[in-house]
């Protein structure tokens, strides 16, 4: 080999190397991997959640969430973490074989779900008012609705939370009313909690009234119909806000003569009905005070109930006053607690001067004495 030839060969090799290097540079992978994620960003605190990662080439994944770090060499992978309270970043780093890195961050919201509790106050016997208190310590409950015995009950707002009013039915037997609270939770899911109002048996001794036939003659079908129509028309809307904020008052001082809920017969052998209010004996002319702030729905003379006033206190709560000798308010009046609305009498179906007093919730009679001195039952 001549020196000339050896030099040519060396130059050729060098050129090839150079071309190779240039080609290698041209085809070198400098593109970072494309990475896709599938992930719900809101989770209940303390529950596991998954992140699915997919890249367009095999990569080394390094995923960091709080103190925890997961690594894997794969193209597709799923990692699981435990959701922490509050919002914290989840960092993904994907490195391909050529050392190209893709980084992305997702913010995970750890949501504390509210666990509302239903507490029932009252309602332990038939014909009793009760309060359902809805309290929830943490988190929010959106669009809460309460059903009492399958019927929507308006939720009212008090400083200690939400509440609803209800009444157990006037019956002799023990039973219960199912309660269902429904709401949207902080993860926008439907949630529900159930409970019940349980009530015991009513003492069933039937009271025999022996009202004389002459007195009973005031009960004509027409009279009953006219009264019922008036009372029906005056029905309180349970979705009205409460008009009262102070405790209920006893409308008169007097001697209780016939307790609430006692089953009774008006005449021997007659049908048994429940006494839907409290009778308080007092002389004719005794002033009768409004048990609480309310709107006068009915003020007039009727054949059975005699002088009748019905007050609408809002929230579906009404109070009724029967057998009045005089009525001192007019329908449509808004009156304060303690306002004298009439005077005791013995008008209508009555055997002597007394006040028949009722408090109803959503039309159901409740023991009025349970309300005295209280803002709610
Ligand atoms: Zn009565």
Describe the fold and architecture.
With 377 residues, the chain is mostly beta strands. The chain has three domains: 77 residues, Sandwich (Immunoglobulin-like); 83 residues, Sandwich (Immunoglobulin-like), CATH 2.60.40.10; 165 residues, Glucose Permease (Domain IIA) (Distorted Sandwich), CATH 2.70.70.10. Helices cover 11% and strands 47% of the residues. It is built from three helices and 28 strands. Strands 16, 19, 21, 22, 23, 25, 27 and 28 form an eight-stranded antiparallel sheet that branches. The longest helix has 25 residues. Bound molecules: zinc ion. Zinc ion (ZN) binds next to loops. The site of zinc ion has 5 residues, from loops.
Low-confidence stretches: none
> What is the name of the CATH superfamily of the largest domain?
Glucose Permease (Domain IIA)
Strand content: over 45%
The coarse silhouette is rod-shaped
CATH architectural type of the largest domain: Distorted Sandwich
Question: How would you classify the helix and strand content by structural class?
Answer: mainly beta
Number of domains: 3
CATH hierarchy, class of the largest domain:
Mainly Beta
Bound molecules: zinc ion
Beta strands, count: 28
Distance between the termini: 118 Å
> How can the largest sheet be summarized?
8 strands, antiparallel
| Secondary structure tally, helices | 3
Nearest-integer average pLDDT: 90
């Amino acid at each position: 080999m001549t020196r000339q030839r050896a030099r040519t060969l060396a130059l050729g090799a060098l050129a090839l190397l150079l071309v190779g290097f240039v080609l290698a540079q041209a085809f070198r992978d400098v593109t970072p991997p494309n990475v896709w994620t599938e992930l719900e960003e809101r989770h209940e605190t303390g529950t596991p959640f998954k992140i699915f990662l997919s890249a367009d080439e095999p990569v080394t994944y390094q995923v960091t969430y709080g103190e925890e770090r997961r690594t894997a060499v794969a193209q597709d992978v799923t990692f699981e973490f435990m959701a922490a309270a509050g919002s914290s970043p989840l960092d993904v780093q994907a490195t391909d074989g050529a050392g190209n890195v893709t980084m992305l961050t997702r913010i995970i919201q750890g949501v504390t779900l509210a666990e509302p509790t239903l507490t029932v106050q009252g309602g332990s016997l038939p014909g009793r008012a009760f309060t359902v208190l809805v309290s929830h310590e943490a988190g929010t409950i959106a669009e809460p609705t309460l059903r009492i015995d399958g019927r929507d009950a308006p939720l009212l707002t008090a400083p200690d939370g939400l509440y609803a009013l209800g009444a157990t039915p006037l019956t002799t037997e023990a039973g219960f009313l199912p309660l269902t609270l429904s709401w949207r939770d902080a993860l926008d899911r439907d949630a529900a909690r159930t409970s019940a109002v349980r009530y015991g048996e009513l003492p069933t001794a039937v009271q025999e009234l022996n009202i004389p036939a002459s007195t009973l003659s005031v009960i004509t079908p027409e009279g009953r119909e006219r009264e019922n129509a008036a009372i029906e028309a005056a029905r309180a809307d349970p979705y009205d806000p409460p008009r009262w904020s102070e405790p209920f008052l006893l409308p008169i001082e007097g001697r209780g003569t016939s307790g609430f809920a006692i089953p009774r017969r008006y005449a021997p052998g007659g049908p048994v009905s429940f006494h839907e209010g409290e009778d308080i004996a007092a002389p004719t002319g005794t002033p009768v005070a409004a048990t609480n702030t309310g709107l006068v729905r009915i003020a007039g003379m009727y054949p059975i109930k005699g002088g009748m006033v019905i007050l609408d206190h809002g929230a579906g709560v009404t109070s009724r006053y029967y057998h009045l000798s005089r009525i001192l308010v007019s329908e449509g009046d808004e009156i304060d607690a303690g306002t004298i609305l009439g005077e005791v009498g013995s008008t209508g179906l009555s055997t002597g001067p007394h006040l028949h007093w009722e408090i109803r919730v959503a039309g159901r009679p409740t023991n009025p004495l349970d309300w005295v001195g209280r803002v709610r039952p």
